Model the fold of this input.
Amino acid sequence: MKRFLNRKSSVLALLAMLLLSPMSLWAHHTESHFDDRSPHKVVYQLNKADPAYHDHILFSVGTVLRKYGDDVEIVVEVFAEGIHLLAKNPKRPVPEKVQQKVRSLADYGVAFHACENTMKSLQWEQKDMLDFAKVVPSGADDLMLLQERGFSYISW
Done:
C-alpha cells in the first residue's frame, strides 16, 4: 500500500508541475491564434492521401467558416497519409487546386496541425512543412486535448 501511495504521489506531483508550468504541455499542444472565447470550435481529422477526401473536408471547413466567420475556431488535424497535404514537397500527389484551398483557408485563420510522429516516420522536420503548419507531437493526443477544450470532432 505504501508503494502505491508513493507512486500515486509522484504522478500527482508531476501532473501538478505540468499543469502549473507556463510552458506546460497543455499550452504547447493547444495554443492557437484564435480567441478561446469563440462560441464555436471544431476540429477536423484529415488522415488520408485521397484528393477527393481532401476536397470534401476542405469544402466542409469552408462552409463552416463562411457561416460563422470570426465566431468559429477551426483546426484541421493532419496525420498518417494525410500529412502530405502540408508538405512543401509531398511524396504523394496533392493537386494544385487542393494546395490552393489549404493556403486560402490558412489565410482566413484555419489552423492546420501536423503530426510530428507521422513526420518522423517520413524523416521530415518543420522545415519540410508549409510555413503555416503547426507541428504537434502527436495528432491523436492533440485531437484529445482539443476535444477536452470543447472542440467538436469531425471525422470521415
